[in-house]
Specification:
By secondary structure, the protein is mainly β. The protein has one domain (3-121). Helices cover 13% and strands 38% of the residues. It has helices spanning 17-23, 105-115, and strands at 3-6, 10-14, 27-31, 35-41, 51-58, 62-69, 72-78, 84-89, 97-100. The strands form 2 sheets. The protein has a 6-stranded mixed sheet, with helices on one face. The N and C termini lie far apart (32 Å).
Length: 142
């Protein structure tokens, strides 16, 4: 599982060796000022939006890499079967969303929420889907 380290003005997402190989990157460094939302998605598959791009996509085993959609791209390092930490980023960031499986997503989300200065006020607990992809049709019942 990936490991997230929070510093004074940025956080660092370090991938495991197999994730590095799959994603073709070692780490992702993000300024805390770019963080807009932080939520824990209980259903891992809900963190995957758009179509798969470069990476490794083995259903029910691992999903690591970049996913593309009309609003840009998301970076995912998700292991099925557990909750996923979803970090929504500002539009000027290279990714719209980081979705990662981390050892303790609830504690990590709490720490990240306390450290990020520009969190958006999202009603209803802040489900990550509150950051819809532009031109995405609303789901029935929403």
């Amino acid at each position: 599982m990936a490991h997230l380290t929070i510093g004074e003005d940025q956080f660092l997402l370090r991938l495991t060796w197999p994730e590095m190989v799959a994603a073709r990157r070692v780490r992702i460094r993000v300024p805390l000022a770019a963080v807009r939302t932080v939520v824990v998605e209980r259903d891992w598959w809900r963190a995957l939006r758009g179509r798969r791009g470069r990476g490794v996509w083995v259903p029910e085993v691992v999903c690591v890499g970049v996913r593309w959609h009309s609003a840009g791209r998301d970076f995912v390092a998700v292991r099925p079967g557990g909750p996923v930490l979803c970090i929504g980023l500002c539009p000027s960031s290279p990714f719209s969303l980081l979705a990662v499986s981390v050892p303790d997503p609830d504690a990590t989300a709490h720490c990240l929420r306390n450290a990020a200065p520009n969190l958006a006020d999202v009603a209803g607990g802040g489900l990550w889907r509150s950051l819809p992809v532009p031109n995405e049709a609303p789901q029935a019942g929403s």
